[in-house]
Amino acid sequence: MSDKTPPHPALLWARWRFSIISGLLVRPPAPGQLGHELQQLAATPWRHPIDEGWITCGRSTIERWYYTARDAHDPIGALTRKVRSDAGTTSAMSRPLLVALKDQYTAHPSWTYKLQADNLAALADEDPERFGPAVSESTVRRRMKKRGWIPRKRRRNPTPGQRKAELRLENREVRSFEATHVHALWHYDFHEAKKLRVVDADGGWHTPFALCILDDCSRLGCHAQWYLAENAENLVHGLEQACCKRGLPRGAMHDNGGAMRAQETTNGLQDLSITSFPTLAYSPYQNGKGEAIWEQFEGRLLAMLEAVEPLTLGFLNLATQAWMEMEYNRTKHEEIGMAPLERALSGESVARPAPDLETLHLAFSARVTRTQRRSDGTISLESVRFELPSHLRTLEKVCVRYRSWDLTRAWIVDERTSDVLARVRPQDKIKNADGRRRTLEPLDELPESTTPTDDNPVPPLMSQPALPSRLSPSSSRRSPPAPTLGSR
User: Fold this and answer.
1) Do residues 117 and 159 touch, judged by C-beta distance below 8 A?
2) pLDDT per residue of the chain (488 residues) written in tens, 0 to 9
């Protein structure tokens, strides 16, 4: 790749000086001929190193360059103009004025550079002996940029979390990172396409939300899909699709949105042994790889669909899958130097095989405890009653897994091992109205009783003699045993 950035002017001047006297270094002049050679070089016009004009140099100047470069280990470095001793220091703004600028920026971080400079000039005019002369806007701009005092948008009534995030960003460094193995870390997030509208079957228009799941190491687009809302149901659906396509990752990075913090989502990551890495509050830069792909969504994918009318959600998802698999995953990525699909196939993967879809549904579900009604053997979930099988009728409390958006089924699981004990469905009262009932099966198989009960109707406790251990502390230790009711 060619370097398109021009060298520093000081280096250009040094190279230009070296080009003038390089002939004398390659072919050293004979004794007595140096003056003639220098006179010819002084009479020759040379192209300006920066401008397009032509200039000439004096004989003594060329002679000084020659002797400087001849005895130097690095001729071009020796011909470079020396750095000033006061380089990097500032003298235009006094120290008290710089402190005033810091206090002014702290109180008003949303002011522009021009507004900061104008207020600083007014402050210097009020007390010139303390602050010194006023400075220009360019000076204020350089001082602020050097110290990271960048104007930022002012928040109205910022929350404590927003203040903490701003303070952390000012005091802590930000560094890019990359996973060492494929599928070691996934990024996922939603994006609202504010300039796009899709129509449904009833003729209603909606603003769609895109869910994109990206691999950190290979930048592979694991799955991308559009939905009509940003909620836990759609997030879980997209995660299940990505797991079925690529396998189970080792970790996942996401923000702190409501869908990401839903119980179904967090339980799914935990049950599938996927480590969750939530970003810090109000710090979207931590999920930068996931945020950067939205520019391609807007600039390429949606730009190609701007003439499609009417645009439906189904066609949008079909086009998104084709673009993701055929263009994005197969196009060379500038940062990794190859296509995401190529790196995903050539790199070392730590993905695990995905389980069946029923196991994924069970993993991405909420977990609650409910008390079983003794009267009819039901429990209540989200105001919906579910019937439990008869073999679980003796359980007082049961552990239930369910999905809040799909109340057509639920799972009764073991509280300790999470093994599924039964799959239950909502109660059908109309079907139960036919009056047919099953015979309750015994819970366990016990042998028939072999002890006759009719020979002695007295309970065993009343037939026992009064043992010393049963006597009260005030009773005598040597008292005779009391007769029993069954004694003769």
Assistant:
1) no
2) 455 677 888 888 899 999 998 888 888 888 888 998 999 999 999 988 888 789 899 999 999 999 999 888 888 888 888 877 666 666 678 888 888 998 998 888 888 999 999 999 998 888 888 888 888 899 899 888 888 888 877 666 667 766 776 676 667 777 788 899 999 999 999 999 988 999 998 889 999 999 999 999 999 999 999 999 999 999 999 999 999 999 999 999 998 889 999 999 999 999 999 999 988 776 777 777 878 889 899 989 999 998 898 899 999 999 999 999 999 999 999 999 999 999 999 999 999 999 999 999 999 999 999 999 988 889 999 999 999 998 888 899 999 999 999 999 999 999 998 899 999 999 988 888 887 877 777 766 767 666 665 667 777 778 777 655 555 555 545 555 555 545 54
CATH number at residue 323: 3.30.420.10
Residue with tokens 């799955």: 223
Residue 111 neighbours by CB under 8 Å, 6+ apart: 104, 105, 119, 151
Residue 263 class from Cβ within 10 Å (0-12 exposed, 13-18 middle, 19+ buried)?
Answer: middle
Taking the C-alpha atoms of residue 467 and residue 470, their distance in angstroms, rounded to an integer, is 5
Domain around 392: 366-432
Claim to verify: residue 190 and residue 301 sit in the same structural domain: yes
Q: Read off the CATH number of the domain in which 401 is found.
A: 2.40.50
- Same structural domain for residues 233 and 127? no
DSSP 412: E
Q: Are residues 227 and 321 in the same domain?
A: yes
Contact indicator for 361, 233 with CB cutoff of 8 Å: no
Question: Mapped to the 3 state alphabet, what secondary structure does 155-205 carry?
Answer: CCCCCHHHHHHHHHHHHCCCCCCCCCCECCCEEEEEEECCCCCEECCCCCE
103 and 38 within one domain: no
> Under DSSP, is residue 379 helix (H, G, I), strand (E, B) or coil?
strand
d(Cα 114, Cα 138) in Å, to the nearest integer? 9
Q: Looking at the domain assignment, is residue 178 inside a domain?
A: no
Q: Give the residue from 432, 448, 471 where a domain finishes.
A: 432
d(CA 409, CA 467): 58
Count of structural domains, the chain: 4
End-to-end CA distance of the chain: 115
Assigned domain for 310 exists = yes
| DSSP code, position 337 | T
- Decide if 341 is inside a domain: yes
Q: Which of 417, 412, 329, 433 is nearest to 368 (CA)?
A: 412
181 part of a folded domain: no
276 and 211 in a single domain? The answer is: yes
Claim to verify: residue 333 and residue 191 sit in the same structural domain: yes
How many residues are there in the chain?
Answer: 488
